[in-house]
Each structure stands twice: as C-alpha cells, then as structure tokens.
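Below sits our specimen:

——
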Amino acid sequence: MTTPTEFVLWLNGAAGVMGEAPTPEQWEVIKEKMNESLGFLAAKRLLERAEDQVVRDRENELKRAAAVEQMNRHAQYSADIARYQAVVDAKADIGAALLDVHAAKLSIGAAKSSVASASLSAPPEKTSFFGAMADRIKGAV
C-alpha cells in the first residue's frame, strides 16, 4: 500500500517522464495509484461522516423526545385546568342554589312576619280567669 506522500512523489516523477498530457493508459495507472494511496483516506472520511451522522441522529432523537414530553406536559396542564374549572363551576352552581334556598327562607320569614304583624294589629281581648269562668258558666246555662 502506498502512502499519500509516496503517491505525490511518484506522481511528480511520472509527470516528468510523461511530458504534457498523459495518455488514457497513463491516466488509468495514475487512478490506480491514487486509489491505492488515497482510498483509505476516503474510507476514513466516510466513516467520520457516518459517525457524525449517528451523533446528529441521536441529538435529533433527543430533541424529538423532549418535544413530545413538552407536548404531553402541556396536554396534562390543559386537562388539569379543565378539571379545576369544572370544580369551580360546580361550586358556583352549589353557591347559587344555596343563595336561592336562603332567599326562599327569607321570603318565607317575611311572609311569616307579615302574618304575625297582621295578627298583632288586632290583639285579642284579655280576660281574667274569673271572667273566663263566668263566660263558661253563662254558656252552660
């Protein structure tokens, strides 16, 4: 196997012997020598690119997983807010019902109060014990 330095030295020597432009046969020999000496560099570079791609793929997968996690947290947050809103709405409905009951009690109390005030406007005559007994006796006769 030829090293890149050996290839450059060989090419310089071959160029001095060839003259102006190499023939098609000479080009084939140059290509073979170049592949022999530089082929491992190309393979090395391809492996480096493959390793870089693996790193990029891992980074992209981590970013995607983070985005999915964030979407899941957002969905959970929205569900929590909806549950909390439902509880608040239920409590508001209960509070409104309690206010209605209280208002009904107040109106019943007001009605009782008006009945009581109507009955107080004409108080019954008070009679003494002896007067009541006398009224009973008169009614019995």
Summary: The two ends are 153 Å apart (CA to CA). The chain has three helices and no strands. Residues 4-112 form one domain.
